Amino acid sequence: MTLTLVSCFLVALFGVLYCEAELERFEHGAKPDGSLSFLVIGDWGRRGDYNQSEVALQMGIIGEKLDIDFIISTGDNFYDKGLTGVDDPAFHESFSDVYTAPSLQKQWYIVLGNHDYRGNVEAQLSPILTEKDSRWLCLRNFILNAGPEMAEFIFVDTTPMVDKYFTDPEDQVYDWRGISPRKNYLKNVLEEVESALRESTAKWKIVVGHHTIKSASTHGNTYELNVHLLPILEMGLVGQKLDIDYVISTGDNFYEDGLTGVHDPAFNESFSSIYTSPSLQKQWYHVLGNHDYRGDVKAQLSHILRQKDKRWLCLRSFILESEFVEFFFVDTTPFVDKYFTDPGKHTYDWRGVYPREVYLSNLLKDVDAALKKSTATWKIVVGHHTIKSAGHHGVTEELVKQLVPILEDNSVDMYINGHDHCLEHIIDSTSQIHYFTSGGGSKAWNSDVHWWDPEELKLWYDGQGFMSMQMTQKKAHIRFYDVFGKVLHAWNLTKEMHSAI
Ligand SMILES: *[C@@H]1O[C@H](CO)[C@@H](O)[C@H](O)[C@H]1NC(C)=O
Ligand SMILES: *[C@@H]1O[C@H](CO)[C@@H](O)[C@H](O)[C@H]1NC(C)=O
Ligand SMILES: *[C@@H]1O[C@H](CO)[C@@H](O)[C@H](O)[C@H]1NC(C)=O
User: Fold this and answer.
1) Which domains does the chain possess?
2) What is the phi/psi pair of residue 26, to 5°?
3) Mean pLDDT of 97-124
4) Residues 6+ apart with CB under 8 A from 5
């Protein structure tokens, strides 16, 4: 009897990860009773104006009550343009002379905001300021171990992550010394954050940055952080807990327009040099998404990519046998009429797909034959496009008409897809096939939901996240997680139950 556990980890969109470099670390002990308390303040330095002094007064009172251990500043320390230099009087006028309450005479741990980058950044990072006021500690990226094992704070320099400060600075001049080449700087920061999170053994892990990730206010969500930082919070924290056997990618491997060729640097930049975490050094099984079809498809299918990175395996349609489970990867993009009849300004690479009718009918025949031949306990079909979805793209009619009858005929257990940028679990009430959408790898929050029968819709989540599956012969345990690794939805499927139907 086999008791092998298959765990697969689904990522629908590409994020970022890991390396060896080390962030500077600081230690801050807890109180004798093991507790810690601190205040957090951001966007403050205005020489006392705009109620800065009033806020400081209240911080002093609360700081006293809570007997705080330290203070965190989330940046924009000096308006409107940071400091002009280490001797800028704003340092006293906006910091030392404002936060004068006895309870605020503690260590301050400070990151930079975008306004700080409009002045002399090196001044704020300089030890000369710490000599002027011993509370001051400002670095670009660093770690604070508090407790010391209790809480780990990872301070992240988020300003250089935001594109518009570089591409559209308007009349602002930013001090990017120490940042360029920007790409390398960001890559290193993200790698360091990922490795710090992965290695941390602290009970609480807290990331501090200046820019919003989720915000209902003026600036809203920061797109770049959602794309680059959130995947690290997801994968770094949860990925290591499952012993992953392989990774499945449900397509749209390279945005916006696939690869230009086998030597497109995007292969390295968006795959090899990104998914470097040890837990992701497994085989990756890829299908193609519609965005991949907008580039050179043959490049993604080429064995040359496999020579460049042996984890890479991308085929149009293929079968993966894994003891008691068989995965059928199906190339769904050529099924969708509108890419042919109404491609808009996009050009699709249909080499190898024409004549389309023949391609599709052969593919359907092959899938049907393979499913019929399969003796696996679990049969799982994977494709990029949705079949049942309450999300933005909704139901793909072409697949409902052509693929679903084959799935139903052959008692397929699950269909797993991406395409819609959300997480969903829909059970078809007649066939009992489970439809899983795992498309929340990065850009989400479409607020675009269509009505779906609540009897069938077991999960609808519009934010980022991912799905995991652990399987044995008899049981499949499926979980959906949000970006913090919190389980949003869990579902067990058992084989006895299935064969009884
Ligand atoms: C200062 O705070 C008071 C009380 O909230 C508010 O009425 C006033 O508008 C604030 N002043 C400024 C400049 O924001
Ligand atoms: C991949 O990119 C990294 C930096 O992003 C670079 O160090 C490495 O040399 C590149 N590798 C290849 C094969 O181009
Ligand atoms: C699934 O089964 C596991 C035991 O294998 C159990 O701990 C868990 O609570 C079950 N989850 C659900 C949602 O039924």
Assistant:
1) 4-17+242-500 (3.60.21.10), 24-228 (3.60.21.10)
2) -125, 155
3) 96
4) 243, 470, 471, 472
Cβ within 8 Å of residue 156, ≥6 positions away = 111, 141, 189, 193, 207, 208, 209, 229
**Range scoring the smallest mean pLDDT among 195-204, 306-315, 480-489:** 195-204
Backbone angles phi, psi at 437, to 5 degrees: -105, 120
Structure tokens at 71: 């203070």
Q: Provide the percentage of residues in the chain whose pLDDT is more than 90.
A: 65
Q: Which residues contact 66 (CB under 8 A, 6 or more apart)?
A: 37, 39
Residue 174 · residue 212 · CB < 8 Å: no
DSSP 5: P
The answer to whether 285 and 47 are in contact (CB under 8 A) is: no
Asked if residues 462 and 445 have their Cβ atoms less than 8 Å apart, the reply is yes
Determine contact, residues 366/357, Cβ cutoff 8 Å.
no
Answer yes or no: is the C-beta of 273 below 6 A from any ligand 2 atom: yes
Report how far ligand 3's centroid is from the alpha carbon of 479 (Å): 10
Quote the tokens at residue 323: 């003891």
Q: What is the CA radius of gyration of the chain?
A: 26
| Joined tokens for residue 367 | 């899938």
Whole-number Å distance, alpha carbon 53 to ligand 2 midpoint, is 50
Mapping DSSP onto H, E and C, the string for 167-231 reads HCCCCCCCCCCCCCCHHHHHHHHHHHHHHHHHHCCCCEEEEEECCCCCCCCCCCCCHHHHHHCHH
Q: Which atom of ligand 3 is nearest to the CA of 490?
A: 13
Q: Which residues contact 372 (CB under 8 A, 6 or more apart)?
A: 410
DSSP state of 273: T
Q: Which of 477, 479, 481, 494 has most ligand 3 atoms within 8 Å of CB, for mutation?
A: 477
Nearest CA to ligand 1 atom 2: 51
User: Which atom from ligand 2 is nearest to the alpha carbon of 265?
Assistant: 14
CA dist., res. 85 & res. 495, Å (int): 69
Q: Which helix (H) or strand (E) holds 204?
A: strand 204-209
Atom of ligand 3 nearest to the CA of 492: 1
pTM of the predicted structure, to 2 decimals: 0.55
Q: Which of 188, 228, 259, 272 to mutate to test the pocket of ligand 2 (most atoms within 8 A of CB)?
A: 272
CB of 37 closer than 6 A to ligand 2?
A: no
CB contact at 8 A, 395 and 385: no
Q: What pLDDT, in 10s, does the model give residues 355-406?
A: 999 999 999 999 999 999 998 999 999 999 999 999 999 999 999 999 999 9
Is there a catalytic annotation at residue 92?
Answer: no
